[in-house]
Design a protein that fits this description.
Structural class: alpha/beta
Radius of gyration: 23 Å
Helix content: 40-55%
Number of strands: 11
CATH class of the largest domain: Alpha Beta
Distance between the termini: 18 Å
Oligomer: single chain
Largest sheet: 8 strands, parallel, barrel
Strand content: 15-25%
CATH architecture of the largest domain: Alpha-Beta Barrel
CATH superfamily of the largest domain: Dihydropteroate synthase-like
CATH topology of the largest domain: TIM Barrel
């Protein structure tokens, strides 16, 4: 007899299939093979006591503070530990319970339905401006087209074109200047039919620039202002384009001037819920909406790390998640590193985000990301 421990990141269903387990058994057993952990804030104490008993009855766990059983405080924070099967039971069981547990049950149901259904894609970055924070992303004219072709060859399925820097303290430009920077590239993409080889994204929040890009075959709008301009939502609807909603506190000129959050996860989550609701009301589907937590956009290092650590929280919105931390200063804040040496830190962040639900990786180094993602995936698939 020989025994070894299986890694928690293996593909459970595939492992059971290769073992020869019956189809029905695969469905039942795979749900019991992984535990999930949820932090529940300000749960009413009676609800905590009910949920605690329901968890114990099915083999799950709810950690609560001392004194909860005698309702020492009106509300408590708690930690739920359960596998997928137990979460399915709780999502039905708590629907009939009072004290806010019905809302908790609906949250679980949304979460259970929101596991990633998209393959991981790489979005390559091309900047047509001269003041973007990473010099290696700046291209003009034919050099931009050459860079785009190389990125597609290296494995990018989405190309993001921008004409205005959004780095902290960057200088805002008017729409005329922005359009003059990107239009030559847009025209070449259209003339050479490059939009048939990849999905092209316009990194802009300016309607006139976005419309010009959409007219040139683009199908993705990357809006750092989070679709606060209804004209941008209308354009996404009119052209059936994807729309990336990014969270940013303030503007690029002010966002890093002492940003503060009571709870960054809660604030970003509420922002997404509000913007998604607006987009749906204006005709977009959730398949068109992409969410970006906005690493470095009005965030301290601890905010960025928390958003990355708990990135899977945002899966409940049932939209694709984009992550863009390529060569950003958060790496330098962890270990002092010049921009041109931050690729290893970038890969570490992006692979972690993939494990937590990200399916679009916005980066400067396409070939390196393609290799890292393929090796990462191979490790997950093997038993």
């Amino acid at each position: 007899m020989y025994i070894y421990q299986l890694d928690k990141d293996i593909d459970y269903r595939r492992s059971l299939y290769e073992l020869g387990v019956e189809r029905g058994g695969i469905e039942i057993i795979s749900k019991k093979m992984d535990n999930y952990i949820f932090y529940i804030k300000e749960l009413k104490t009676p609800a905590a006591n009910i949920l605690k008993q329901d968890c114990l009855s099915i083999g799950a766990e709810l950690a609560v503070p001392r004194g909860t059983v005698v309702c020492q405080n009106k509300k408590v924070d708690s930690i739920l530990v359960a596998n997928r099967k137990q979460l399915e039971i709780l999502s039905k069981k708590e629907l009939s319970q009072p004290f806010g547990l019905k809302e908790f049950a609906k949250y679980l149901q949304d979460w259970l339905e929101a596991m990633p259904k998209y393959p991981v894609e790489i979005m390559g970055v091309v900047n047509a401006n001269s003041d973007s924070f990473y010099e290696g992303s700046r291209f003009k004219g034919t050099k931009a087209i050459d860079a785009i072709s190389k990125m597609i060859e290296d494995g990018a399925t989405i190309i993001d074109i921008g004409g205005v820097s959004s780095r902290p303290g960057s200088i805002a430009v008017d729409s005329t200047e922005e359009l003059s920077r990107v239009e030559p590239i847009l025209e070449e993409i259209y003339k050479k039919s490059l939009y048939k080889e990849a999905l092209f994204s316009i990194d802009s929040y300016t309607p006139v620039v976005i419309k010009r890009a959409l007219d040139c075959g683009f199908g993705f709008i990357n809006d750092i202002t989070g679709a606060t301009d209804e004209n941008v939502i209308s354009l996404a609807n009119e052209y059936n384009a994807k729309l990336c909603i990014m969270h940013m506190k303030g503007t690029p000129q002010t966002m890093q001037l002492n940003p503060h959050y009571e709870d960054v996860i809660d604030e970003v989550d509420n922002f997404f819920a509000d913007r998604i609701s607006k987009c749906i009301d204006m005709g977009l589907s959730k398949d068109q909406i992409v969410l970006d937590v906005g690493i470095g956009f009005g965030k301290r290092l601890e905010d960025n790390l928390r958003l990355l650590k708990h990135h899977s929280t945002f899966l409940k919105h049932k939209c694709q998640l984009l992550i863009g931390a390529s060569r950003k200063s958060m790496i330098d804040h962890i270990i002092p590193t010049p921009i041109d040496k931050r690729l290893p830190g970038t890969l570490a962040i992006h692979l972690s985000a993939i494990d937590r639900g990200a399916t679009i990786i916005r980066c400067h180094d396409v070939a390196e990301h393609k290799q890292a993602i393929m090796v990462h995936q191979a490790l997950k698939e093997i038993i």
